[in-house]
Amino acid sequence: MLLKGLILGLCCFCAQIAAQESVTLQLKWTHQFQFAGYYMAKEKGFYKDVGLDVTINPADLTMPDAFSAVANGDAEFGVGHSGILQERINGQSFVAMAPILQYSPYCWMVKDTSDIFHPRDFVNKRISKVSHNDSNELMAMLTRSGVNTRLLSVYNGDNPSQAWIENRLDAMQVYLSTEPYNMTQRGISHRLICPQRYGIDVYADILYTTGKMLSTSPETVEKFYQASLKGWRYAMMNMDEAIAVTQILYAPNKSFHELAYEAEVLKEYIMPATTSLGHMSIPKWRLIADLYGIHQTEFDKVKASFIYKYQRPEKMELSWMLIAAIIVSVISIPLYLRLMFSKKITV
C-alpha cells in the first residue's frame, strides 16, 4: 500500500514537472498565410514537443500594434516590423529573434495608366498616409530619389483603397500579397514600385521578445525560437497543407486561392535562395538604423543585446525524467533495505 502511494505521488509530481508552459504570440495583423509557420508549429505539435502551450493572438485592426502587447506583458512574443529597432533605441527592451521576411513587403501601387514609373516621378503626386514606423522605407525610397516628401499631398481620409480607385489618390501604400490581389480580382490593372528594387533592403515580420523574458526564461525563448523556425520550414516544404490549415483553422474568411496567392508571393521573401530562414546580420541592421536616422553611436550601444543569441544557463537544470529517476532511486533504497532485513529474519 505504501509503495502504491509513493508511485502515485511520483506520477503526480512528474506530471506537474512535465506540464506545458503557456506563452502568447501577438501577431501584427489578422490571421493569414503571412503567419502560417506559427500555425504549423502549433498544429503539428512542434511547440507541444518542447513543452509550450502557445496562444496566437491576431492584431486588433483598430490598433494593429504588436509592440504594446509585448511591452505591457500581455504577450511574451510578438511579430513586428523593422521599426522595432527604433523602439529599442527609444527605451523598449525588445530583442529581435528572427526576421521571417528578408525584404520589405510594402510597395507603392499605382494605376497601370499612371505616369509614375520611378520613385522620382512622385513629385507633386497624391499619396496615401504612410506609417513612419511600419513602412518608413517607402518614404525613404522617395527621399533618396530626390523627392521632398513634405511637399506631397497626403490623403488622411477613410478607405484609401476606394479613394485610389476613384483617382483621388495617385499612389497607395500596399502590402505586396494583399491589395494587389484584391485589385486584380476586381479587374483593375496596376503596377508596383517597391523599395527593394531601388536598393532599400529592410527586414520585416520580425519575431521578437523582451530582454526581461530572455533573462528570466532563456530556455523558453530558445524553445519557442527553434519550434517556430521548425514550423516555418514545414510550412515552406508543405505549402498546400499550410494553406489548408490556415484557411480552415485561422482564416475561414479567406479563399484557398487568395491564401495560395499570398503564399506564392511571400515564399521568395521568406526563404530567398541565398539566405537561410530567419537569418539576420549586424551590417543590415546598421543600414536599417541609417534608414530611421539612428546615429551609429546609438546603434552601437544596443546592438549586442538587440540581436538574439541564446546562451545556455550555467546552472545545471535537471529534466523531469532525471528527477523522476532520482526519486525512484531514493524510494527504492529503504524498500531494498527492508526486504533484505526481512530475509535475514526469515533465515
From TrEMBL:
Q: What keywords sit in the KW lines?
A: Iron, Membrane, Metal-binding, Pyridoxal phosphate, Signal, Thiamine biosynthesis, Transferase, Transmembrane, Transmembrane helix
- Asked if the record carries the keyword Transport, the reply is no
Give the metabolic or biological pathway.
Cofactor biosynthesis; thiamine diphosphate biosynthesis
According to the record, the signal peptide region is: 1-17
Annotated SsuA/THI5-like domain residues:
32-242
Entry annotated with the keyword Iron: yes
Name the Pfam families on file.
NMT1 (PF09084)
Which reaction(s) does its UniProt entry say it catalyses? Answer: N(6)-(pyridoxal phosphate)-L-lysyl-[4-amino-5-hydroxymethyl-2-methylpyrimidine phosphate synthase] + L-histidyl-[4-amino-5-hydroxymethyl-2-methylpyrimidine phosphate synthase] + 2 Fe(3+) + 4 H2O = L-lysyl-[4-amino-5-hydroxymethyl-2-methylpyrimidine phosphate synthase] + (2S)-2-amino-5-hydroxy-4-oxopentanoyl-[4-amino-5-hydroxymethyl-2-methylpyrimidine phosphate synthase] + 4-amino-2-methyl-5-(phosphooxymethyl)pyrimidine + 3-oxopropanoate + 2 Fe(2+) + 2 H(+)
Q: Show the InterPro entries listed in the entry.
A: NMT1/THI5, SsuA/THI5
Q: Which residues cross the membrane?
A: 318-337
User: Highest taxon of the source?
Assistant: Bacteria
What does the subunit section of this Swiss-Prot or TrEMBL entry state?
Homodimer.
Family the entry assigns: Belongs to the NMT1/THI5 family.
Please describe what this protein does. Responsible for the formation of the pyrimidine heterocycle in the thiamine biosynthesis pathway. Catalyzes the formation of hydroxymethylpyrimidine phosphate (HMP-P) from histidine and pyridoxal phosphate (PLP). The protein uses PLP and the active site histidine to form HMP-P, generating an inactive enzyme. The enzyme can only undergo a single turnover, which suggests it is a suicide enzyme.
Q: Which PANTHER family match?
A: 4-AMINO-5-HYDROXYMETHYL-2-METHYLPYRIMIDINE PHOSPHATE SYNTHASE THI11-RELATED
Protein name as it appears in the record:
Thiamine pyrimidine synthase
The scientific name of the source species is Pseudoalteromonas marina
